[in-house]
Amino acid sequence: MRENALWSLPALRRLETEAELQGLDLMQRAARATADWVRQRLHSDARILVAAGPGNNGGDALYAALLLMQAGYSVDILLPQAATSRQSQAALQAIRQAGGIPLQQLASDYPTPELLIDGLFGIGLSRPLSADWAAVMTQLNALDCLKLALDCPSGLDPYTGQAQQACIRASHTLTFLCHKPGLYYAAGADHAGQIELAGLDCPQALLPPAEGYLNRQDASPLQRRRDSHKGSHGTLCLIGGNRGMLGAALLAGRAALAAGAGKVHVLTLDGSLTVDPLCPELMLQYADPAMPLPAADVLALGPGLGQDKPARQWLKRVLASTLPLVLDADALNLLASNADLQHTLARRPASTILTPHPAEAARLLACSSADVQGDRLSAARQLAERFQCTVLLKGAGSLIVTVGQPYLLNTSGGPALAAAGQGDVLTGLIAALLAQGMEAHAASSLAARVHGLAGDEYQQQAGGPIGLTASATSQRCSAWLNRLL
Ligand SMILES: NC(=O)C1=CN([C@@H]2O[C@H](COP(=O)(O)OP(=O)(O)OC[C@H]3O[C@@H](n4cnc5c(N)ncnc54)[C@H](OP(=O)(O)O)[C@@H]3O)[C@@H](O)[C@H]2O)[C@@H](O)CC1
Ligand SMILES: [K+]
């Protein structure tokens, strides 16, 4: 658990102060971890450029530079601005004593090194960068080499994932003490590269409580007794598939079967199909708003739902039910424009899961998608609070938030899943896991994880993210569920 913990920034700062009071030199440890990282990858005559900023992120980089010089590497140090923190000034002095002469700027024909170590700014970046700093970062980004960011890529807010206009685009990030969520989402997803944690052997007693974790939910709650039958694995009723969007409901239904739901009813507002020839196990029916609901353990509403009158009637009906419920797509859009139904949702006695993408979250919060992406965690928390439910905020670094539980940050998945119908698959997966008895937070987390793993696996096998269809994703999800049992 420790290695997956996510601490808030104030908690991290308190730890820093406490460690200093106790005489733990975390900067030296960060420098050693950096030097070890380099030694494991680069031969000792490699040329390395270490870019150090004025604060303690720069101090980490300077001490690492010293260790690498001592290990025989050819090290250039770029220090665009004088060191201001006490520890980085001490590091600079040690470098000078060892014969190192920092450069204030790089010549325009500076030869490309094998590695850039980015120690310009870490968690202390507190305001917009000047044009001079932006020019430095642009020059560093243009170097065609490995780029290791210390703690976080400089120019990135490691908590919100917002990048300043100039931001280091790292191939790798070695982050210290704990993971930071902004490395995984928004601009962080494209700037942090491969992320590794250096925990710095901080004593257990100093560690703050986690406010969240990287999502590592396994499938053990789905283990089956040999003496079981389809009725043991839950019945799901999925409603959607309006005219022109029938496929969305089918995709969700097929995914639910692939994720192990015992029986799946698919009620479509289109009604023109009575069987899915490619998946005859699904029980299809016209979603007449006047019909009684089939007996079910879980409801899901949204894939291909549309926003017409019958769609609204169904939203009202499912909100009034006492069954666990997943709401996606147009169910969320309808909810966004109806204060009464929002009120009903907040008072539901059973658990509800909302699975918005940033634009749907923005409609529910009456703000812009950019606002949601500007602080994803805060947006997901607001939704969970307001509607007293579980929220799965989709997008790179999906977040799973339930009031009163540590949030989970999903680290699997990537652009292979940015394709039509993948949201419908995710809805089907979550609903199937609920139907098999998992609680809302765990079901959402497991579904997000296996969906992401399916996307990663495809990308690796195909050599790139293009071409994974939603239809082809469900079987990969089954395989991952079985592996994680
Ligand atoms: N947490 C821990 O326990 C550990 C932390 N460690 C390391 O310390 C790092 C945090 O160090 P930090 O607090 O000194 O912040 P950092 O990122 O170096 O930046 C601050 C400097 O930048 C300046 N500055 C800010 N914005 C600016 C701007 N836009 N443009 C220009 N200047 C700007 C700011 O100036 P000021 O605001 O004071 O004027 C100050 O000089 C952390 O990321 C990790 O690497 C490790 O040693 C292990 C233990
Ligand atoms: K950095």
Automatic annotation (TrEMBL):
Record carries keyword DNA repair: no
Binding-site positions, AMP: 394-398, 423
UniProt-listed GO biological process terms: metabolite repair; nicotinamide nucleotide metabolic process
Binding site for K(+): 57, 118, 154
Free-text cofactor note: Binds 1 potassium ion per subunit.
Keywords linked to the UniProt accession: ATP-binding, Isomerase, Kinase, Lyase, Metal-binding, Multifunctional enzyme, NAD, NADP, Nucleotide-binding, Potassium, Transferase
YjeF C-terminal domain span: 213-484
Domain YjeF N-terminal: 8-208
Listed InterPro entries: Carbohydrate_kinase_pred_CS, CARKD, Nnr, Ribokinase-like, YjeF_N_dom, YjeF_N_dom_sf
GO MF annotation: an example: ATP binding
Pfam families: Carb_kinase (PF01256), YjeF_N (PF03853)
Residues involved in (6S)-NADPHX binding: 56-60, 122-128, 151, 248, 304, 357, 424
Reactions the enzyme catalyzes: (6S)-NADPHX + ADP = AMP + phosphate + NADPH + H(+); (6R)-NADPHX = (6S)-NADPHX; (6S)-NADHX + ADP = AMP + phosphate + NADH + H(+); (6R)-NADHX = (6S)-NADHX
Cofactor(s) required, per the database record: K(+); Mg(2+)
The keyword rRNA processing is annotated on this UniProt entry: no
EC numbers: 4.2.1.136, 5.1.99.6
PANTHER family: ATP-DEPENDENT (S)-NAD(P)H-HYDRATE DEHYDRATASE, ATP-DEPENDENT (S)-NAD(P)H-HYDRATE DEHYDRATASE FAMILY MEMBER
Membership in a protein family: In the N-terminal section; belongs to the NnrE/AIBP family.
Subunit structure: Homotetramer.
Function, as annotated: Bifunctional enzyme that catalyzes the epimerization of the S- and R-forms of NAD(P)HX and the dehydration of the S-form of NAD(P)HX at the expense of ADP, which is converted to AMP. This allows the repair of both epimers of NAD(P)HX, a damaged form of NAD(P)H that is a result of enzymatic or heat-dependent hydration.
NCBIfam families assigned: yjeF_cterm, yjeF_nterm
HAMAP family reported in the protein's UniProt record: NADHX_dehydratase (MF_01965), NADHX_epimerase (MF_01966)
Name of the protein in its database record: Bifunctional NAD(P)H-hydrate repair enzyme
Lineage: Bacteria, Pseudomonadati, Pseudomonadota, Betaproteobacteria, Neisseriales
